[in-house]
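Consider one such protein record:
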Amino acid sequence: MSDWVVPDASAIPNPLQSIAVARPQHVVLVADDGEWTASSLADIVAAQAARFAARGVRPGSRVVLTGVASADWVIAFHALGWLGATVAPLAVDSPREVAVRDVLALTPDFVINTHGAEALTPEALEIPLERMITFDASPPASDAARAPERFWPWNEPRIVVLTSGTTGTPRPIVLTTQQIVLTAFGSLLRLEHRADDRWLACLPLHHVGGLSVLLRCALYGTTVVLHRRFVAARVARALDSGEATMVSLVPTMLERVLDVRDAKPFAASFRVALVGGARCPPALVARCRDLAVPIALTWGMSEAASQIATRIPGDTSDDAGSGAPLGFVRVREHGGLLEVTGPTINGTLLTRDLGQVDALGRVHVFGREDGVIVSGGEKIDPLGIERALSEHTAIKDVAVIGIPNARWGERPVALLVAKGEPVSDAELDAWCAERLPRFEIPNHYVWFTTLTTHAMDKRSRTTLTARLRAEAPHLFSAQESETTQGTGEIGGEARRLEGGRIDEGMHDPNRRTYPVVSPDDAINESYRALSGFGDLQSHNEAFAKVHRPAEIGITMDNGRAPPVGIEQRLNATRRHGKKFFESLVAIFENPRKVDDSGAVNVAESRRE
């Protein structure tokens, strides 16, 4: 294809077409449903762009794109960029109320649904029918129309992402060609570049961290290895086998990957794990040092198109913070807050991150000044949770704070005052699930007679935290940390984070709610089940059965996972606690023939 459109003198050629010209047979996308060379992907993208144009998408159109992480999603993303439209990714698994709120905040001209977003109909999103486009996944005919390549003007908006603010309402962040390109090449200079790099994308694509993998590989001419969702064992295998040489993770995900591996060295081809989104615990850094994991800790934000400061890969020293700023940005301390200046931020931004820059120019981040809770790489605004809970008829007053969590950094806790009798945690969980993203559902609900006194303003997070510590010290105890690292990983916290696709319907055992496991086709691989428990809760009917005590049924369809029929069940009660889940892990790790006539004995199933 030799036709192109150049809007102005600052515009750069479309990166995907640049790869197709330079390395036409180079594989640029590997996904569950196939792989694509640069030339084949560019051809499909140009044809898909023509289809979108026929529906009215134009340069400058703002288009919400939703669906599971798939080749279709990537093709749609690049096709919109091919036309010069602005892409606004939307989480596919949000409750309807959240999806409507987010679409309202994004103010799109069109909404495009790819695979997995069938429930987000025009009626559900409250938009006119003509503004909804369903992705056509059929291969284009050889004589089908192809849209001409359109160059990207330097200051033209490319993507819009939502970020949590301090108002309880998500705020759209517009990122231009300039910001994306300069951040990408600032990252490349810090992490180095190899023509055969294969960057594993397992972060949500509606976050800038996930999107940046697609954009950077297009700019670098390298390969995206796309996983539909994060499953720790699958990520570990990709890194061990050489399928991927790079990966972007939040600290919790990195820890899960290490947990499913023996303490063996990684493959020599694995050259960097970019780790950001939340503070990386010192113990995890030390673990990476002992295992020679090539981590590169980073600090960034949506407003800067991801990275701002990043360590050199393999730097696991104790005093380097997030490393030095990238080459196209400067950072300094201003009144205890970090201030960022440069073209990747489009000027100067005084962040709400508390921190300092040391004598060597390295950036150290201490936390948030505005009460925003950073949990597993997700930013959670307490006001949004407070607003959702305050609408419940049983609640008179509410405040939400973050408390330390050994695995996720922080998790939200709701402090409540009842109008009459307090309601159950399960009822509040269900209430929140209809109004909030899963990762925003509080881990605990603590009831008080009042949240205000003559000496206390309830909006003082420091005072509220001190009061919660006095009233519910167990939430801050060592046992809480132990639970978080043990059953909590298998329970509620995991399912609230990482896109809500891990351990759906399961809750922290301290919360007195236990899961029902309906594996069917989910437990088709014991290693996968052991590592991620990613599909154990794949059926809605299983969610509905959650009760106290819950029945946990384990089935197996092949010889690699433990065969247990529907008649065999484990009654999980509070007394089993962590030991029960350790037993469950032992069953998955050490599959053996199980007699279908009776129940599995938890004690006998424990790892020897």
